[in-house]
Amino acid sequence: MRNLLYLVGAGLLGLQWLVLRAVGLAHVSPMVETIGAGVAIFGAAFLLSWAAEAAEKDIPQALALATLALIAVLPEYAVDMYFAWQAPHHPEYTAFATANMTGANRLLIGLGWAAVAAAWWLRRGERRIALERSHSVEIFFLLLATIYSFVIPLKGTISAWDSIVLLGLFVGYVVVASRAPHEEPELVGPAEWIASFGTVPRRVIVLCLFFYAAIAILLAAEPFAEGLIATGRIVGIEEFLLVQWLAPLASESPEFIIALLFAWKGRPGAGLGALISSKVNQWTLLIGMLPLVYSTSAGHLAAMPLDARQVEEILLTAAQSLFAVAVLSDLDFSLRDAGVLAGLFISQLFFTDPVARYGYSIAYIVLTVVVLFGGGDRWRAMRELPRFLFAKG
Q1: Whole-model pTM above 0.90?
Q2: What are the residue ranges in the chain where pLDDT is below 50?
Q3: Phi, psi of 157 (to 5 degrees)
């Protein structure tokens, strides 16, 4: 009964927003929008975490986390696709699309990964998160996408060719994740209760939870982001920075909440794995979709142009991603690693000129070399990442 109450309670958090939308009361005031939409996202995050855990009863953890990550990142996709759709007719939206995408990706690593390590330390006093070997799938495909991403700032555009490569990597990631070995999960709470049902009822419940949570997140994402942006405008923050940081902070909140819930429940590897999978999603599927949406809106095949600011933002995001992959190459993430990622991310918020951006990019690349070749087994571990894929293939 307690587990059922948890599920119903989380469902009601999303339902209140759906009712507000249905009866037309969601636009009474920005405060009502922000609180109502934020509460809905919070409730949906709980449902997603339980559904993803229960889904591990039937599918490999890697595929369950990939599905979870894809649904959790829907708000980010909705916001960025809107910007890409408007860009052919309003050129300033091209910058917004890039700003939103780069901000979301850097937030995910700079704050998200570090928050999971901090939550695990606060909960159990542990200073390290040991990832399972199966997470080599996410890390390997993130490495491939990151290496390719350095091509984009060199070209100065995001084109259909980028879509082919990045969407191909995403498909490859999903295929490999679906072939990962299945292991019996250790479940507690509502996830354990859901898993106790027979095969057909369990799968129906999991699918319904995924669907309901996805609807709640999609309907709540834009009002939540707009409410936060409206607050930022009141205090006089630059619009580009609002789109780059404040909107992604709202749209990324389901992923952050889910990952922290995993860590707090004693599964920090699953929490970090969910965020790594989200990073793979955003660094392949999200970027790959932008030129397709842009071209569809324009009515012909076209590449999204990048100005100097967007080029430096993408370069910095790619450099951060490369350093993050190097840190995770040995499947070990320490509180010190988290502190370095968070420190570099937070400090760069205070230096927005081009020289500083390129300086941070170089710093990330230099740190990558130090991490890989400065002692330890990380370079050997990175070279062995593909072995897991082929061994299990």
Answers
A1: no
A2: 392-393
A3: -145, 160
